[in-house]
Amino acid sequence: xxRPETLVITNNKALRELVEWLRGHRDRTGLHYRVLAERADCxxxxxxxxxxxxxxPTLQAVLRYATACEAPQDExxxxxxxxxxxxxxxxxxxxxxxxAKPPFIGNLAELSAALLNVYERAGSPSLRTMEGRTxxxxxxxxxxxxxxxxKETVPYGIPQLQAxxxxxxxxxxxxxxxxxxxxxxxxxxxxxVVVRDVPPPPRTHRTRDAAAASNITVQLVRKTSPRGDxxxxxxxxxxxxxIELE
Length: 246
Description:
The structure is a single chain. This protein has three domains: 13-92, 434 Repressor (Amino-terminal Domain) (Orthogonal Bundle); 102-188, 434 Repressor (Amino-terminal Domain) (Orthogonal Bundle), CATH 1.10.260; 191-245, no CATH class. The chain starts with 12 loop residues before the first helix and ends with a strand. It has ten helices and four strands. It has helices at 13-29, 33-40, 44-50, 59-69, 73-92, 108-121, 127-133, 142-149, 158-167, 175-190, and strands at residues 193-198, 218-225, 228-234, 240-245. It is of the alpha+beta class and 246 residues long. The protein has a four-stranded antiparallel β-sheet, covered by helices on one side.
């Protein structure tokens, strides 16, 4: 028979919900932590601390607990993310600001804040974890991630934006609205004029492989600057190209 748990004392409501969920599944099994630890291939202390409510446990500990109790992994992840997000909000001590949803993002500052919010709602995973989720080194470097999370920059193109969303485990079905927000933010801050559904630029202005894709309709965005004209191609395949115009 399982030993009774201690009282949960925390102001983190999401953490309390997580702990009660874990304990509920343990009560359902009626097993001692020692037996659950054998099922989860970890130490019993790891599981007991995960359900203590003293602090937000690691995701790995929560998933091991769920595995031992044969509880849904997806629900375990969702509750853990909520607990981590609430912890982050409390650490900011009221410095949380309203964040625009993708359809209402109008500039790069709002996009940057929204991406940070996505990261925090994902449970603030480590840079190593995020890099691994995108397929390894080079796809989304940790240095770039660090700059994005400090709101010093945003993903430089659609592929890198998709990599960031992948690292934060955002469902692909939601990517189009984020891609639209990325484009809108760049259009606003760069003060560009949008020319939609135009053919690729003349041969002298094409990128090296543009000729091979001359039959693909693109969205061409042109920006005038002291250094000359520059065009951004937002292509249907998700790739973004920069073209220097003479």
